[in-house]
Write a structure and sequence with these properties.
Blueprint lengths: L4 E3 L8 H16 L7 E4 L1 H10 L6 H16 L12 E7 L9 E5 L5 H9 L2 H18 L5 H15 L9 H19 L7 H15 L3 H10 L7 E7 L10 E8 L6 E9 L3 H5 L6 E2 L3 H4 L1 H18 L3 E8 L2 E9 L4 H13 L5 H6 L3 H7 L3 E2 L1 H6 L2 E4 L1 E4 L2 E7 L2 H9 L4 E5 L7 H6 L2 E4 L7 H9 L2 E4 L5 E3 L4 E4 L3 E4 L3 E5 L4 E4 L4 E2 L2 H6 L10 H16 L3 E5 L3 H9 L5 E5 L9 H9 L3 H25 L4 E5 L12 H11 L5 H13 L11 H6 L3 H18 L5 E6 L5 H22 L6 E6 L2 H5 L1 H7 L2 E4 L1 H9 L3 H7 L1 H7 L15 H15 L4 E4 L7 H10 L3 E4 L4 H12 L1
Parallel strand pairs: 14-15, 15-16, 16-17, 24-25, 24-31, 25-26, 26-27, 27-28, 28-29, 29-30, 30-31
Antiparallel strand pairs: 1-2, 2-5, 3-4, 3-5, 6-7, 6-9, 7-8, 9-10, 11-23, 12-22, 13-17, 14-21, 18-19, 19-20, 21-22
Helix pairs in contact: 4-5, 5-7, 6-7, 13-21, 15-37, 21-37, 22-24, 23-24, 24-28, 25-26, 28-29, 29-31, 31-35, 36-37
Bound molecules: adenosine-5'-diphosphate and magnesium ion (2 copies).
Length: about 900
């Protein structure tokens, strides 16, 4: 039988799978000799068993008994003992932190007898009754599923009777009465009495924590954060310490550095005479941590000491929860802290400079997603100066967000679904607001510090957030808030919030490029002094030095090619030639399609060729000396013709007077109409069916290259044939292509070189890659089509229709169009790469689907041994960084 329970002295920080993050780190701190209240952890394995079978695994209760007895003897008192009760908290803690997503119950062990024991031991009646009512409240809500508002309302009523707004004014008698009221609420709404047996309390709370793994908001959060669904949570049983024992007690949270900027210093919030959940919930206003120095110097100094110990030990920024009980400091939690993207880059370089980590580790400490966040635009400084500033709150999560004000999560979701940008405004958020936060451009709260729910969750999602804007009076019921000076902002009004400065503006403030983008554009230098730019530069340089994969761009015009090159592209991996057939040239394509004789067709092709040639010259110039992969025309021809229904109506309405040209067009549209265009006449099939089409394109490429060479340039064209499923298709096109290259060489007297290769985007191509490589000098995986053809669904049709259901069911954790499906599509990629190279050692292989800019997919491409990934110009820095990280 596995071991299901670990004392805090038995675990360590590397056991997160088993003990969850909280448990593993409580154990680590215990073993570092830091003051952690004793306790033990029930493993995630026990949770998984419980969730699967609905009962606790055999032997677990006995194991808990043994550990509880040991804890009781350490503490010198029994759980719920009438004259001197041991109280514990029952705390959730999964492998990945899910702030506020799951449940915790404090003060387990109190009942009608032990409340007197607690009062006598503490010498404080009020404290004991307050703790007892908190237990019933938390237990009622969490374990017995009673609407939390019922308890809140009873508490408000008690305060009203006293004529106060503050809990502090309630006395022992008030809390004792409240305990009575709360018990009544439990009886009425749970259909049972509040359990007075301490051990039963603990068991029920444990199971409730297990169950909270599958709470709706936890499921939604996991999906958002891509956390696997089947990990389960551990449960930590931790002896209670009390921050609500008077003004010499209190509770707080802290970071070892600023999670928004990375700056070293004292960052945190403290609340006197309170229990932990009061701070995290942002219910009462906290004081900045520095003020603790005046309140309790000894604890303050000890805390700073411990923070330094933790930073050096974890070699990273940590966040912590602590409580002071009558002048004695206790550590209740630590973990490597969540941080903004900018802070991640800065902290990585600071730790590197401090010698705590090496350069490889610094690159491991940041992600492509974080880099992508830093490339978002921000407010134009001059315009922001001009704008009406409503207030300034805390800069909780950076970015510039503009949108219509909404006050509820439901409304946020509703308007976002209609394509509106919204800003969710709340007094404070709680886990029920998650869907609204996901839907909104940004979040604004009037209460709570940088560690409030809104701040933590928004940072995790990379969503702009301003919190604790205390000057705002938010009235959710009325659907409006007022700012200083009496400005009232109602639902639907537009505001702009700056998560980097904390400022809130009325109306829309224009946004501008981020400094990181300006750095990649070459407009800002690393030496110009911006610390963030410097950090990005250092880590990018290191990543580039490590990367084995090259990064190319998907670009089909000179402007994009130039930008891609500035952003560090090492060539073009996909130039889509059909994009060159749009706009004014559409008519020429129409002529080509409508041609009735070879002469007419040739005339149309002859008209297109010089235009194509011009395009290629521009791109070769921008990418001089670097490979440019040009894909011959891919989509079905009807995409260049008018819509069937529209044209039919037009011709029908015109009757006899219909334009003969329209009639011919309509005929062509009918002729080319396909039930499944994705699987129809396109790609290489088109090239083989419409004589001269591919040849025209190849000639344009070859002549453009010849022209560049004559002008002293160094063009490196690679001609790519799309949608090949059989080597015979490729052979036919290849022969033609070679002939044209030879003709151009002959005519121009210039030695034009071009590689001829193919896309691998059909399962058959992947499975016969060994044969195809006979005729291909390179492969490029078109993973968009390969995903569609492997799964047998068309992207345009399925994403709206059933993907969200599939994600809910866990059929995939993330859309296979976003992150390459390793098991299925990835397997085909592996087979094709291996068998292609077996035929033609040194075969150049890349990927040009949208996956080329997705971090996880980049790592996969590295593992499979591809030569390059290709992605849109703006994703290039992300792909470069991930290519480097994959090699570390
Ligand atoms: P979360 O994961 O949501 O932060 P926690 O398990 O950390 O939940 O607990 C919620 C709050 O209760 C925190 O502020 C924590 O510090 C406090 N807390 C938990 N256990 C104890 C304890 N044994 N004594 C005092 N406070 C506690
Ligand atoms: Mg916590
Ligand atoms: Mg394709």
């Amino acid at each position: 039988m596995p071991k299901f329970v670990y004392d805090f002295t038995e675990g360590n920080k590397d056991l997160k799978d088993l003990l969850g993050g909280k448990g593993a780190n409580l154990a680590e701190m215990t073993n570092l000799g830091l003051p952690v209240p004793p306790g033990f952890t029930i493993t995630t394995e026990a949770c998984r068993y419980y969730l699967e079978h609905g009962t606790l695994p055999e032997g677990l209760e006995a194991e808990i008994d043994t550990h509880l007895t040991a804890l009781e003897s350490t503490m010198g008192k029994r759980l719920g003992q009438a004259d001197d009760p041991l109280l514990v908290s029952v705390r959730s803690g999964a492998k990945f932190s899910m702030p506020g997503m799951m449940e915790t119950v404090l003060n387990i062990g109190l009942n009608d007898e032990s409340v007197h024991g607690l009062a006598a031991q503490a010498g404080d009646e009020r404290f004991a009754w307050d703790s007892y009512r908190r237990l019933i409240q938390m237990f009622g809500k969490t374990v017995l599923d009673i609407d939390g508002d019922l308890f809140e309302e009873a508490l408000e009523a008690a305060k009203d009777r006293k004529g106060t707004k503050d809990d502090v004014d309630l006395d022992a008698g008030d809390f004792r009465d409240l305990v009575g009221t709360y018990k009544g609420i439990v009886r009425e709404h749970a259909g049972r009495d509040f359990p007075t047996d301490p051990r039963e309390q603990m068991n029920l709370a444990t199971m409730a924590v297990f169950d909270s793994w599958n709470a709706d908001r936890a499921i939604l959060y996991r999906r958002q954060e891509r956390i696997p669904v089947d990990l389960g949570t551990a449960v930590n049983i931790c002896s209670m310490v009390f921050g609500n024992l008077g003004m010499d007690s209190g509770t707080g949270v802290a970071f070892t550095r600023d999670p928004a900027s990375g700056q070293q210093g004292i960052y945190g919030d403290y609340l006197q005479n309170a229990q932990g959940e009061d701070v995290v919930a942002g219910i009462r206003n906290t004081v900045p941590l520095v003020e603790l120095e005046k309140i309790d110097k000894a604890s303050y100094d000890q805390l700073l000491d411990i923070m330094e110990t933790l930073e050096n030990h974890y070699r990273d920024m940590c966040d912590i929860e602590f409580t002071i009980e009558r002048g004695k400091l206790w550590m209740l939690q630590t973990r490597v802290g969540k941080r903004t993207a900018a802070a991640a880059f800065r902290i990585a370089c600071q730790l590197l400079d401090q010698g705590l980590i090496d350069a490889d580790e610094s690159a491991r400490r940041v992600t492509g997603d974080q880099l992508a966040q830093l490339m978002f635009p921000r407010f134009d400084g001059a315009a922001a100066k001009e704008a009406t500033k409503l207030t300034k709150g805390m800069n909780a999560s950076p970015g510039a967000a503009v949108g219509k004000v909404v006050f509820t999560s439901e409304r946020a979701v509703e308007l976002a679904a209609q394509g509106e940008d919204v800003i969710l405004v709340r007094r404070e958020t709680n886990p029920d607001d998650l869907s609204g936060m996901v839907a909104a451009q940004g979040v604004l709260t009037s209460r709570g510090g940088k560690t409030s729910h809104a701040a933590v969750v928004a940072r995790g999602m990379g969503k702009t957030c301003v919190c604790g804007a205390e000057e705002l009076d938010v009235d959710v019921k009325a659907g409006s808030f007022t700012a200083p000076g009496g400005v009232t902002v109602s639902e639907g009004d537009v505001i702009s919030i700056d998560g980097s400065s904390g400022e809130v503006f009325l109306g829309e403030v224009p946004v501008e490029d981020s400094p990181v983008v300006r750095y990649f554009e070459g407009e800002l230098r690393a030496s110009d002094g911006d610390e963030l730019v410097k950090s990005v530069h250092r880590i990018m340089k290191h990543a580039d030095g490590r990367a084995r994969l090259k990064v190319r761009a998907n670009a089909d015009n000179p402007e994009d090619s130039e930008r891609a090159r500035r952003f560090g592209a090492q060539g073009i991996g996909l130039c889509r030639t059909e994009h060159m057939f749009l706009g004014e040239r559409r008519q020429l394509v129409e002529k080509l399609i409508l041609a009735e004789t070879p002469e007419e067709r040739q005339a149309a092709l002859d008209a297109l060729e010089p235009l194509q040639k011009q395009d290629f010259e521009g791109i070769f110039t921008a990418m001089d000396g670097l490979p440019v992969t040009i894909r011959l025309i891919d989509p079905p021809l009807h995409e260049f013709l008018p819509d069937l229904t529209e044209l039919s109506v037009k011709v029908a309405l015109a009757g006899d007077k219909a334009d003969p040209q329209d009639r011919r067009l309509l005929e062509a549209v009918h002729r080319l109409h396909e039930q499944n265009p994705m699987l129809g006449l396109r790609g290489v099939r088109l090239g083989l069916v419409i004589p001269g089409l591919f040849s025209m394109q190849v000639r344009a490429i070859a002549e453009a290259a010849a022209g560049r060479i004559e002008a002293g340039g160094d063009p490196r064209p690679e001609i790519m044939i799309p949608l090949v499923g059989a080597v015979q298709e490729l052979e036919a096109v290849r022969e033609d292509t070679l002939r044209i290259l030879a003709e151009v060489k002959e005519a121009s007297g210039v030695d034009v070189h071009a590689l001829i290769g193919t896309m691998i985007e059909l399962p058959r191509a992947a499975l016969t890659a060994g044969q195809i490589a006979e005729a291909a000098e390179f492969f490029s995986f078109g993973t968009n089509d390969l995903t569609q053809t492997t799964w047998g669904f068309s992207r345009d049709d399925v994403e709206a229709a059933f993907f969200s259901r599939y994600l809910e069911l866990g059929i995939f954790g993330v859309s296979p169009f976003e992150t390459l499906d390793r098991d299925g599509v990835g397997r085909l990629v592996r087979i094709a790469a291996e068998e292609g190279r077996a035929t033609r050692p040194g075969l150049k292989i890349g990927i040009c689907g949208e996956h080329g800019g997705d971090p996880d997919s980049v790592h996969f491409c590295h593992e499979v041994g591809l030569d390059y990934v290709s992605c849109s110009p703006f994703r290039i820095p992300v792909a470069r960084l991930e290519a480097g990280r994959a090699a570390i």
